[in-house]
Description:
Elements: H1 6-32, H2 48-52, E1 58-66, E2 75-76, E3 81-87, E4 94-100, E5 107-115, E6 119-126, E7 131-140, E8 143-149, E9 159-165, E10 171-179, E11 187-197
Antiparallel strand pairs: 1-2, 1-3, 1-11, 3-4, 4-5, 5-6, 6-7, 7-8, 8-9, 9-10, 10-11
Amino acid sequence: MNPPTKTARLRTGIASLAVGCLVGSTAGILHAQTPEPDRTTPSPAAAPTLGRVGYMVGDWTVRNFVRDSATAPWVELPAQSFMRARYLRDGLGLLEEFYEAQADGFHGLHLITHDPDEGIVHRYSDARRNQRVEFRGRFDGADYVISMRGGYNGKGDFLYREVDSGIGADGFVKRIYRSTDEGKTWVEGNYYYRFARAG
């Protein structure tokens, strides 16, 4: 077997250098992707309103209440659901996740951002049910309201809104309303939710 030529040795050296650089750069990439703690505050560059929706940040247990009619008593369902919210990495938006305990249960997302023309925008997604809708958010005094026409499927001929009230450090209540007269009067739905901070 003949000894490697000068050209072959040069190619081998270049290949070794390339592999060394690739390994070094890959290690740098992996290091840069080390998980970071969830962000709990908006960016200083975010719209001020994104700071006001910061009450949602954290992990929550959600108690579900239903009734058969507007005059029937409220009954708490035995199953609980959950919500988790955190500011995005750049602090310019907030992500809410709603989910059930079982892996194949309900899972919906609200990506909350601020548009200079529209104000607070909730881009809601539920892949399993193929739902993609947008809500507009605003504060009405101490309450936070999101609304849209037609409810979550966007197809109904009514105005829909959710109102977060009693907002405090450890909890709030979310109630559901509909209007069929363009918001002149509102009728409460037959379900609502109580959020309690987990942990």
